[in-house]
TrEMBL record:
Subcellular location(s) per record: Cytoplasm; Nucleus
Primary location class: cytoplasm
Protein species of origin: Serpula lacrymans var. lacrymans (strain S7.3)
SUPFAM superfamilies: Nucleotidylyl transferase
One Pfam family of this chain: tRNA-synt_1b
Region (Disordered) residue spans: 285-310, 378-443
Catalytic activity line of the entry: tRNA(Tyr) + L-tyrosine + ATP = L-tyrosyl-tRNA(Tyr) + AMP + diphosphate + H(+)
Family in the record: Belongs to the class-I aminoacyl-tRNA synthetase family.
Descriptive protein name: Tyrosine--tRNA ligase
The keyword Cytoplasm is assigned to this record: yes
MF terms (GO), sorted A to Z: ATP binding; tyrosine-tRNA ligase activity
Keyword Nucleotide-binding: yes
Length: 443
């Protein structure tokens, strides 16, 4: 049995910053028993598009889970990817799965998070089994079309003529909770309908109802959702510093506007939580694992100035001619200053860019030092503009003989006859055959 203080400390770490928690009491009961909860995260890891830094929102929260001693199972959802409107061809899905694992491990290493309780599972390792498919058929015999459509409305692409796979998707995600043997599923608040679908239908199959933890959704750089299919809305994990700074400079960040502002949202859900984690680690508050931070790559400095006052979690640096730095003890303080136009976008953007460049540096370094990862990346996401390797094959020359009376021997043929040679010797004449083709005859 764990002490009430320990339970509260771990539960606070597990749930802080979340948008919504369904079934929190069940998680507390597990912690009280002294057991480690088991979590599953998988919707965002269907290996379709290339992962972008929007994944930091979920990964930062997963870092909290791991720090609290939660066993985290990351589903590399290859089957789900194939079902998602055929976004990922089957011949490249396996390489994209490997790419995701390389990347996610590099992110956790860069954050200094021990991965002893981090488990990667490929969906095809169990989703093609007889047992899983029989349960899927049982579910199909229970779920109405209306409920399946409603559950996937926020996460399955809605088209005029929907594919049957879109109706299967929510049920498969619900079954994953049982087959991955977890206590709670984690995802964005956009998956709430799928989560409540699972809470309703898993017990009807005789399986336990799980808890569900939801993160807020974060706008992209252009103000809408950060998407792999929109290059302007996202920053890739492997983007070089100059590309990161260019995208941040061009990001939507209207003065005083705190809604649909991707930069403010990223500060709230990623930069400040990472800064707080590093500050906690500096104070020796490592919660469940004393090894936390020891294998970290890259800078582990919080996003604050060296002379920041006690309690600061984020610093906005300025050019001295525009004023002194601003130090914030909470996101709310920073948001209020921005809303009241005390903090200008031209001051906000460079500080955000510096922080992101610092976060991505060890990940890019790990990629550049791994030949295997680079080979996987080339196969998983081939450059559509790349020219085919090898020299261009030269076109073979085909000889076409000149027509009669033309070409280099034309003069010899048309030369006047030698008076000393009889006309019947060596002379040639042309006749026309039945096919209309001229033929030479000798006389």
């Amino acid at each position: 049995m764990a002490s009430p203080e320990e339970v509260e400390q771990k539960y606070e770490l597990i749930t802080r910053g979340l948008k919504e928690v369904l079934g929190g009491d069940a998680i507390k009961a597990i912690l009280t028993e002294g057991r480690s909860p088991k979590c599953y995260w998988g919707k965002c890891t269907a290996p379709t598009g290339k992962p972008h830094i929007g994944y930091f929102v979920a990964l930062t929260k997963i870092a909290d889970f791991l720090r609290a001693g939660v066993t985290v199972k990351i589903l590399l959802a290859d089957i789900h990817a194939f079902l998602d409107n055929l976004k990922a061809p089957l011949d490249v899905v396996s390489y994209r799965t490997k790419y995701y694992e390389f990347l996610l491990r590099a992110v956790f290493t860069s954050l200094g998070i021990p991965t002893s309780k981090l488990i990667f599972v490929e969906g095809s390792s169990y989703q093609l089994t007889k047992e899983y498919n029989l349960d899927n058929y049982r579910l199909c015999a229970t779920v109405t079309e209306h409920d399946a459509k409603k559950a996937g409305a926020e996460v399955v692409k809605q088209v005029d003529s929907p594919l049957l796979s879109g109706l299967l998707y929510p049920g498969l995600q619900a079954l994953d909770e049982q087959y991955l043997d977890v206590d709670f599923q984690f995802g964005g608040v956009d998956q709430r309908k799928i989560f409540t679908f699972a809470e309703l239908y898993l017990p009807r199959l005789g399986y336990a109802k799980r808890s569900h933890l939801m993160n807020p959704m974060v706008p992209g750089l252009t103000g809408g959702k950060m998407s792999s299919s929109d290059p302007k809305s996202k920053i890739d994990f492997l983007d070089p510093p100059e590309e990161v700074r260019k995208k941040i400079k061009n990001a939507f960040c209207e003065e005083g506007n705190i809604t649909e502002n991707g930069l403010l949202a990223f500060i709230e859900t990623v930069l400040i939580p990472i800064s707080e984690m590093r500050l906690e680690r500096m104070r020796g508050e490592t919660v469940a694992d004393d090894e936390e931070g020891k294998g970290a790559s890259g800078s582990q400095k919080p996003f604050i100035a060296d002379d920041a006052p006690e309690g600061t979690v984020f610093t906005i640096k300025r050019n001295p001619k525009w004023g002194a730095p601003s130090h914030y003890k909470s996101y709310k303080e920073l948001e209020n200053d921005f809303a009241e136009k005390k903090l200008h976008p031209s001051d906000l953007k460079p500080s955000v860019a510096d922080a992101i460049v610092s976060l991505l540096e060890p990940i890019r370094k790990a990629f550049l030092e791994s030949e295997e990862w680079q080979n996987v990346e080339r196969t998983a996401y081939p450059d559509p503009n790349a020219k085919p390797e090898g020299k261009k094959k030269k076109k073979e020359k085909v000889y076409h003989p000149p027509p009669p009376g033309k070409g280099k021997n034309a003069n010899a043929t048309n030369a006047p006859a030698d008076p000393n040679i009889p006309a019947t010797e060596g002379a040639t004449s042309a006749v026309v055959n039945v096919d209309g083709v001229k033929e030479a005859t000798s006389s």
